[in-house]
Amino acid sequence: MSATLPPLIPRIDAILVLDGDGNRLAGKYYGDFLTNTTSSSSKAAMASEAGEEKSSSALTVEDLRASFERQLQAKIVGTAARADAAEAVTVMGRTAVFCGGNSVAGTGTGDVRVIHVAPSEESELVLAHLCEGVYDALSRLMSGHTDRNMILDNLEMIFLLIDEHCDGGFILETDGSKLASSVLLRDESDAIDTEASSGPSTKSAGIGVPSGDMTIAQALRQAREQIISNLAQRDNGI
Predict the structure, then answer these.
(1) I want to staple 13 with a disulfide (CB 3.0 to 4.6 A). Which of 27, 33, 206, 227 is the partner?
(2) What are the pLDDT digits (tens) for 122-153?
(3) Which residues does 2 contact at the CB level (< 8 Å), separation at least 6?
């Protein structure tokens, strides 16, 4: 059986969420791309670090990823890509397609970028479609507030989003609406499992938390619990 993927199903090397300064807020690397220190991609990253203080033998996988992300940031800094019009650059022989990067002076809003990294032979149009779908899902989950602080406050949901979109470098879902719905369902399911394993709780997640300090997941959970409580009270009153 051939291991070759159909032409319209790309192989993804990495999915990253970077802030405006190029710092990785979330992300995953797949296959042999910067997942060990012996692959060809790792050797290329080592070569790019030749002028650094560390010797190549002392470099770790995290050092190599940081080197790649610095090179990536140098290519995309100052470039903003609309949610429906991804931009593409080439870094270390890989194609990197990204959405986001818009910022409003003094607010820091909208400064994160969603980036898909893939081998150079993959179609930029297909990669752009994937990236736009994930950015759309991210915007839905964050209610349009894709700034650095919002992402850091909801990291669990961001990693769930990446997992719902891609598993081991293979794409599972591309539609932003479906991805966002899947993340919310998994987040709610995980919360129910946690509450069941920890026993009865005297305080529901999100209850008593000021609305301005709540995460998106907490707000949705509180709204659902309020609806259930109102229904139960109505039934008891009949």
Answers:
(1) 33
(2) 999 999 999 999 999 999 999 888 889 999 99
(3) none
